Amino acid sequence: MSLDAFLEDCAHRCQRLLEQSLQSSSVQDNLLLDAMRYSCLNGGKRIRPALTYASCVAFGGSLSAADMPAVALELIHAYSLIHDDLPCMDDDDLRRGQPTCHRQFSEPVALLAGDSLQSLAFALLAETPVADGHLRPMLALLGRAALDMAAGQSRDLQAENTPIPLDELESIHRLKTGALMQASLCLGALVAGCSDHSVLDQLKKLGGLLGLCFQIQDDILNVIGDEHQLGKRTGSDAELAKSTYPALLGLDAARIYGQRIRDEALQLINHLGLHNSILCELTHFLVARDR
User: Fold this and answer.
1) Mean pLDDT throughout 90-105?
2) Distance, CA of 258 to CA of 283 (rounded, Å)
3) Could you tell me where the beta strands, DSSP code E, fall in 52-189?
4) What is the distance between the alpha carbons of residues 197 and 7, in angstroms, rounded to a whole number?
5) Residue 223 CB partners (closer than 8 Å, separation 6+)
6) What is the pLDDT of residue 290?
7) How far apart are alpha carbons 149 and 167 in whole angstroms?
8) Which region, left, alpha or beta, applies to residue 40 given φ > 0 means left and ψ of -120 to 50 means alpha?
9) The domain spanning residue 73 has which CATH number?
10) What is the C-alpha to C-alpha distance for residues 156 and 169, in angstroms, rounded to an integer?
11) Rg (CA), the chain
């Protein structure tokens, strides 16, 4: 299967499961449920579910085995985007080509929608059928990833209007962006039956590298990307005086740095014996994407 076909398949699969999960979530308020649906079912790249599926298949599992972990990760991601767009955070009006959740509904409803999506993620993951002894580590992985992501977001906000060195910028993004990608790879492996701690540690390292690849390209696209294609404002990082790779290194050097991180990730994939898996193509995609 080509990468485009794989990503499309994962996106359709995730969309269907998100719809089913929200429909059966028993949320006891229609306005809140509408806001949750609005923020989850509006497209997106579904990179984290794709990584979960790719990791599961690479370790001998089936796509269906990874369904609930993939959905749980996308729900955590969706909640983080709702909160990230709020006026007290990045104050964005557009997400995936439509008004952000707080603009479409209200700030209180958006806040509660994000909270509810996070809770639903853990409820769904707790119901995942897995081998004995694997569920607790999976829940712990998702919880730690959500905590690390929030810590990264906090440190990112603190770094506005404050020049920081490259190692600090990387540290922030290994948390803010990399934490969920680490969890994606590890949850995919665990649900496939892999419980080798050394392998899981290597997957965490790989997820951190992929998070950097994604974030570097995201920073570049915020400078040169097409607003209609991205579905969100460009130039917002500069307006907020955010610390970014183009701001710190320059645009061309940021591209080269992203390619260097990509090559490091590919070496690790090869070391894990996964060089024939879709993970290689996904790694290339993260630093070459235009949306």
Assistant:
1) 93
2) 11
3) 94-95, 98-99
4) 28
5) 234, 235, 237, 238, 246, 251
6) 79
7) 17
8) alpha
9) 1.10.600.10
10) 8
11) 18
pLDDT of 224 above 80? yes
Name residues whose C-beta falls within 8 Å of residue 175's C-beta, 6 or more positions apart in sequence: 148, 149, 151, 152, 155
pLDDT at 229: 67
Structural domain containing residue 262: 3-288
pLDDT (mean) for 54-61: 95
Contacts of 88 (CB under 8 A, 6+ apart): none
How far apart are alpha carbons 152 and 138 in whole angstroms?
A: 21
Question: What average pLDDT does this structure show over 23-51?
Answer: 94
99 class by beta-carbon count within 10 Å (0-12 exposed, 13-18 middle, 19+ buried): middle
Give the list of residues 6+ apart from residue 129 with CB closer than 8 angstroms, or none. Answer: none
Q: Left if phi > 0, otherwise alpha if psi is -120 to 50, otherwise beta: which for 97?
A: left
Q: Which two tokens stand for residue 271?
A: 């070391």
Q: Is the pLDDT of residue 97 over 90?
A: no
**What is residue 1's predicted lDDT score, i.e. its pLDDT?**
74
Burial group, residue 273, by CB count within 10 angstroms (0-12, 13-18, 19+): exposed
| CA 114 to each of CA 4, 118, 189: distance values in angstroms, whole numbers, following the listed order | 30, 6, 27
Exposure string for 180-209, b = 16+ CB within 10 A, e = fewer: bbbbbbbbbbbbbebeeeeebebbbbbbbb
Nearest to 120 by CA among 34, 184, 26: 26
Q: What is the mean pLDDT of the chain?
A: 92
Instruction: Report how many domains make up the chain.
Output: 1
